[in-house]
Amino acid sequence: MTYPNKILRIKIKPIVKVSDEIQAKANELAKTLAECSNGVGLAAPQIGITERMFAIKRGGKVEVLMNPEVAKTWGEKEFPVIADPRPAAAKAMAGKEEEFLEGCLSFPNLFGTVKRYLKIEARWMDGGRILEGFEAIVFQHELDHLNGILVIDRIKESKGRIYRMQGENKVELELQSFVEQ
């Protein structure tokens, strides 16, 4: 589902019991993400399922997490950056790290800067672990979907920037044009 579909604004209730029907929906979610070449996470509402679960790609496999939550955070929310992979001498000449642009399948070709925790303790129905960096960002992004919160909300809250990708170029947009009145 793409914005402004109303299902994206629903706060999804916890799963009480994993029935055959819930498992079938989890399998559909996993299959959909596995077939998606440009996504690393997918929340159930994004494909019209109103169950509290999302799928993430991890180590070449898709994992479905039911009733996910952030149990603990470390540090403050911050704008993530991508370290310059070039050798130190080239970095010194060029300068800086790049801002990390968070994208969303519900907003094709849009990316923005969002403050996130970079280390969290994540829990879900049958597990949990400490997540850092990119994995922590993806977990928080997908969890937001289950709470009816969209990336545009987080960009606005963070006082971040939003861009439309046009080929390999990014064009900065006015965030207000994407925020519901």
Explain what the structure shows:
- The chain is α+β, with helices and mostly antiparallel strands and 181 residues long.
- The protein has one domain: Peptide Deformylase (Alpha-Beta Complex), CATH 3.90.45.10.
- Helix content is 24%, strand content 28%.
- A four-stranded antiparallel beta sheet has the order 7-8-11-12, with helices on one face. Strands 1-2-3 form a three-stranded antiparallel beta sheet, sandwiched between helices.
- Strand 11 and strand 12 form a beta hairpin.
Query: What would you call the shape?
Result: globular
Roughly how much helix do the residues carry, as a percent range?
A: 10-25%
Average predicted confidence as pLDDT: 90
Helix run count? 4
Q: Report the order of strands and helices.
A: HEEEEEHEEEEEHHEE
Strand order within the widest sheet? 7-8-11-12
User: Regarding CATH, which class?
Assistant: Alpha Beta
Number of domains: 1
Q: Which consecutive residue ranges, at least 5 long each, have pLDDT under 50?
A: 89-93
Distance between the termini: 21 Å
CATH-defined architecture: Alpha-Beta Complex
Oligomer: single chain
Strand content: 25-35%
Total strand segments: 12
Q: How is the CATH topology named?
A: Peptide Deformylase
What kind of sheet is the major sheet? Answer: 4 strands, antiparallel
Radius of gyration: 17 Å
Task: Tell me the CATH superfamily.
Answer: Peptide deformylase
Structural class: alpha+beta
Topology readout:
Elements: H1 20-34, E1 41-43, E2 53-58, E3 61-66, E4 69-73, E5 81-82, H2 88-94, E6 98-99, E7 102-103, E8 110-112, E9 119-124, E10 127-132, H3 133-146, H4 151-158, E11 162-166, E12 169-173
Antiparallel strand pairs: 1-2, 2-3, 4-9, 5-6, 7-8, 8-11, 9-10, 11-12
